Amino acid sequence: MKLQTKKYELQNNKGFTLVEMIVAVALFSVVMVVGMGALLNVLNANRQAQAIQTAVNNLNLAMEMISREIRTGHNYHCGDSGSYDKPKDCLFGDDFLAFEPYDGDINDPNDQTVFKLEDGRIKKSEYSGSGFSSLTSEELVLQFLNFIVVGSSKVDNIQPKVLVVAKGYVGVKESNRTFFNLQTTVSQRIIDF
Asked: At the N or C end, where does the chain have fewer CB atoms within 10 A?
């Protein structure tokens, strides 16, 4: 009887066969490849989300700065025609807005703050259209920027307002673009009598 027990113990302690090892390694490899693919997709999506968030934060900062400066300014001039220091409404809008800043000299025609759309970016000048600097980053592409000005004249009994409309997208690759539409209305802080 002892002889049969030893034979049975020897048969149970054989270990894994080569085929079992190959199957186990193959299954492990497939699981790892699928897992790494999922991890890389998550990392790529995270990078894209961070890039979008950075560009949207840049746009929000630019729009907040534009709104603040419009709110405290006066003598709004919409469009790239005529003298920038003379108020001018535009009910259908333009991608160019000039106005006297809060600390500007009403008698100096060369100190107007100007915002405009150029090369898909918002540009700003503090010297009546000379020396523009970009407010938005290259990752953010504006396809449309429109300033609609109402009530810029002091004799129309309408408080001056500027409606700012921006449309564009974030993302360099066409397949990864995220589109946005943004609109804000800003009224002049100084009461217009």
From this structure: N
The H-or-E segment that residue 18 falls in is helix 18-72
Residues 1-55: tens digit of each pLDDT: 555 555 555 555 567 888 999 999 999 999 999 999 999 999 988 988 888 888 8
User: What confidence score (pLDDT) does residue 136 get?
Assistant: 92
Express each pLDDT in 86-113 by its tens digit. 899 999 999 999 999 988 888 888 899 9
Alpha-carbon span 191 to 160, nearest angstrom: 9
**CA–CA separation, 83 vs 85, rounded Å?**
6
Tell me the average pLDDT across 58-70. Answer: 94
- The string over 58-82, giving b where at least 16 C-beta atoms fall within 10 Å of a residue's C-beta and e elsewhere, is bbeebbeebeebbeebbbbbbbeee
**Contact criterion met (CB below 8 Å) for 109 and 120:** no
Token pair for residue 151? Answer: 């009530």
Q: Where are the domains of the chain?
A: 42-187
Query: What does the block give as tokens for 147?
Result: 């300033």
Give the confidence band of 117 by pLDDT, cuts at 50, 70, 90.
very high
For residues 134 and 123, give the distance between their C-alpha atoms in angstroms, rounded to a whole number.
Answer: 4
Q: Are the beta carbons of 158 and 192 closer than 8 angstroms?
A: yes
